[in-house]
Amino acid sequence: MKKSKIILLGFILMSGFSFAQFNTLIPTLPKKSENLKIAEKSDQEDPAKQKKDKKFWKQILNITTKSALKQEIDSLKMLIKEYGSVKDERINDIEKLKTSLTQLTQNQLEKKRETLKKQNAVRTYDFADEPTEYFSKIVMPLKNKLTVTSSYGTRTHPIFGSKKMHNGIDLKASYENVYSVIDGIVTATGWDPKGGGNFIKVKHFNRFETTYMHLSEIYYKIGDRVKAGFIIGKSGNTGNSTGPHLHFSVKEFGQNINPSQFLNDLIKVNNLIANHYEH
């Protein structure tokens, strides 16, 4: 019995020793230091530092908040609105510029029309009065008022006293410029042996031929082209004449016609053109 107790005691001692040996093999976790705990606690309790760190990480990660995003959208809307108003203003400016250019073009065209009118100005005539407006299509054979001293038809000759056909009209003119009444070509010049003195003839459009007699001077030769209003000579007293005047006669297709009616017809047509003339 005594021997059994000794064995049991020895077994117990051996077990305790083994348990102690195994206990030394269990790993132990390191304990946090008091300083680290204090730091963690201070970080959690400092909101300013948390906000700063949050902002820092937002910058690093490019994180945008809803409020910031809303501000950016509002800013973009304002820019779009301002751009739209500027665009509208530019469109208005462009329209104004177009209107100005259109008006300027119309003014220039109007000025051009006025210039053309002046260059081709129409002269309206009253057979008895001074011409008031200039037109180069026709003119009268004399500048001043036309006074007929001897009409067309049968008359008593002022020199010979016999009745004779007067194939033209005599116009009062004392050494004045004589004008071509319409455009034409000079067909004859020289001295008329039948008493007409110095003369010049002009053919117009292969239909009419005008003759100017008793001239003191002649300025064109056969074949020359003349325009209405060209000074073709100067009135005088050459040939069978009792005083300075202009003898004016007209033929149509080679037949004598009344020069007064011819001039009046020219005036009527000319005035009609002048009153209804359009470029």
How would you summarize what this structure contains?
With 279 residues, this protein is an alpha+beta fold. It is 43% helix and 23% strand. Strands 1, 4, 5, 6, 7, 8, 9, 10, 11 and 12 form a 10-stranded antiparallel beta sheet that branches. Strands 2-3 form a two-stranded antiparallel ribbon.
What general form does the structure show?
rod-shaped
User: Residue share in helices?
Assistant: 40-55%
The number of helices is 5
Largest sheet: 10 strands, antiparallel
Report the uncertain regions. 16-26, 128-135
Determine the strand fraction and express it as a percent band. Answer: 15-25%
**Rg estimate, integer Å:** 62 Å
Distance between the termini: 159 Å
Q: Please, what is the average pLDDT?
A: 75
Question: Strand-and-helix sequence, N→C?
Answer: HHHHEEEEEEEEEEEEH
DSSP E strands, number: 12
Question: In terms of structural class, how would the helical and strand content be classed?
Answer: alpha+beta
Structure description:
The protein has 279 residues and is α+β, with helices and mostly antiparallel strands. The chain is 43% helix and 23% strand. The chain has helices spanning 2-23, 34-45, 47-61, 66-119, 259-275, and strands at residues 148-150, 153-156, 163-166, 168-172, 177-179, 184-192, 197-204, 208-218, 225-226, 231-235, 245-252, 255-257. Strands 1, 4, 5, 6, 7, 8, 9, 10, 11 and 12 form a ten-stranded antiparallel β-sheet that branches. The N and C termini lie far apart (159 Å).
